[in-house]
Amino acid sequence: MLMVLLMVLCASTGDLLLKRGMSQMGAVYITLPGLWHAFLSTLQNPIIWLGILFLIGYTVSYMTAVSWADYSYVMPAGAFGYALQTILAVLILREVVVAKRWVGVALIVLGVLLVGQTKPSTTGAVQAAP
Question: What residue segments make up the domains of the chain, in order of their start?
Answer without folding.
Answer: 2-116
